[in-house]
Amino acid sequence: MIRTAWFFLVAGLATLIGGGIVFVASLLRLHGGIYDMVSRTWSHVLIWAGRVDVRVHGLERVDWSRPLVVVCNHTGAFEILALATTIPVRSHFVAKKELERVPVFGPAWKLAGHISIDRHDRQSAIASLRQAAELLNRQGGAVVIFPEGTRSRDGRLQPFKKGAFMLAIEAGVPMLPAVAVGSEKITPPGSLRVNGGRLDLFYGDPIDSIGYTTDSADDLIAVVRGRMEAMLAEQGALPPPA
Q1: Is 230 helix (H, G, I), strand (E, B) or coil?
Q2: Domain residues of the chain, as ranges?
Q3: How far apart are CA 145 and CA 152, in angstroms?
Q4: Long-range CB pairs of 155-163, under 8 A, 24+ apart, other chains included
Q5: Which of 79, 146, 150, 156 has the smallest number of CB atoms closer than 10 Å to its CB?
């Protein structure tokens, strides 16, 4: 409980400070890497406060000079922070619109250039994904999406939503599969407890979206999902079928 209380204390202070910097930067109409620097530093601080040992694998094999759509499994909270701190280019995270309502964090998240999806409004969601595609084509970097939409409670990959794949197809950029192992032990499902521990983040090889269309997005989903399942199986992290 002491570790958890310490984590939330540090997280609260880091959010207030980081959010304040983002608000001032937006008022001054500053552009460039300041927002990415704040997001990366905030994530580093939370990883430190949670006493999480992040081990990264395969990062050096990725050509980060070209735009990418990064997709990762979602079993806890710390894979988000691990991705934010290890992706070496400017990254934009896509998440549910409800995050915008979180005090301080939500407005700062939006001002920093991250992208919210309204899952209950199809037209709004499509517009948000097109905005993400424009960002990729204009600025490069990476857009990060958790295709399951919500965290898995048993470690198995849940059905993938199409948004990430439609984005990659529309932008004409590769998809980069990533898998996190150990996140569910750090923040167990149904608990606010932060346990600390080790998280391994594996980056795979990019998968080209060229040749796929919106009508064949399911085929791209099958390829990416198969690659992520294989990566989890290699680490012994894919639970047996129920």
Answers
A1: helix
A2: 2-234
A3: 15
A4: 155/75, 155/184, 155/237, 155/238, 155/239, 156/238, 156/239, 156/242, 157/73, 157/225, 157/228, 157/229, 157/232, 157/238, 160/221, 160/224, 160/225, 162/217, 162/218, 162/221, 163/94, 163/117, 163/125, 163/129
A5: 150
Region of poorest pLDDT, from 165-169, 182-186, 189-193 = 189-193
| All residues at 6 or more sequence positions from 154 whose CB lies less than 8 Å from its CB, including other chains | 239, 242
Residues 229 and 145: their CA atoms lie apart, in Å, by 17
Alpha carbons 198 and 121: distance in angstroms, whole number: 38
Q: Indicate if the pLDDT at residue 121 is higher than 70.
A: no
Bridging pattern class, strands 197-203 and 175-181: antiparallel
pLDDT of residue 137: 76
pTM of the model: 0.89
Q: Looking at the chain, how many residues does it have? A: 242
| pLDDT for 242 beyond 70 | no
Residues 174 and 168 sit within 8 Å (Cβ to Cβ): yes
| Mean pLDDT of all residues in 14-31 | 82
Q: How far apart are the C-alpha atoms of 39 and 114, rounded to whole Å?
A: 10
Tokens 């999902």, residue located: 225
Provide the CATH number for the domain formed by 2-234 in this structure. Answer: 3.40.1130
